[in-house]
Specification:
By secondary structure, the protein is α+β, with helices and mostly antiparallel strands. It has 2 domains: 1-75, no CATH class; 81-122. The protein contains 5 helices and 4 strands, in the order ββαββαααα. The strands form 2 sheets. A two-stranded antiparallel ribbon has the order 1-4. The chain has a two-stranded antiparallel sheet with strand order 2-3. The radius of gyration is 21 Å and the shape is extended.
Length: 122
């Protein structure tokens, strides 16, 4: 099966079209009174899943293609972080470890004191 990807990237130069209000009519008034709702549109080449490629590998390949097209770095994780508790805990642990590393590099502690510090995470 061939898939065609069309990317719509919101450009907030003249007005932000992101819906952040609680009520739709507030959003509509803000959108209609802004200068413009500008979108950059990118058309990617047709893509097919390779026979030896898993679904995760295919999704990762497409993610990298999209990131390259819009000149942004690809995310290091997929949406499963928000939906799967085990993935969320894994990401949280990695984030805590990075935070602890950064803080300890600025404020060095003795090894036995370092084990006691939780940085507010339990």
């Amino acid at each position: 099966m061939m898939l065609l990807f069309i990317l719509l990237l919101s450009n907030a130069r003249f007005g932000d079209s992101f819906w952040s209000e609680d009520l739709f009519h507030n959003y509509l008034i803000r959108l209609l009174t802004s200068w413009a709702a500008v979108y950059d549109i990118y058309y990617l080449d047709p893509q097919t899943k390779k026979p030896d490629e898993t679904s995760d590998e295919f999704a990762s390949r497409i993610q990298i293609l999209i990131a390259n097209a819009i000149q942004k770095p690809a995310a290091l994780f997929d949406g499963s972080v928000w939906y799967k508790p085990a993935e969320r805990q894994k990401y949280r642990s990695a984030l805590q470890e990075k935070c602890a590393w950064e803080v300890s590099s600025v404020m060095p502690l003795a090894e036995k004191e370092r084990k006691k510090v939780t940085f507010g995470f339990t």
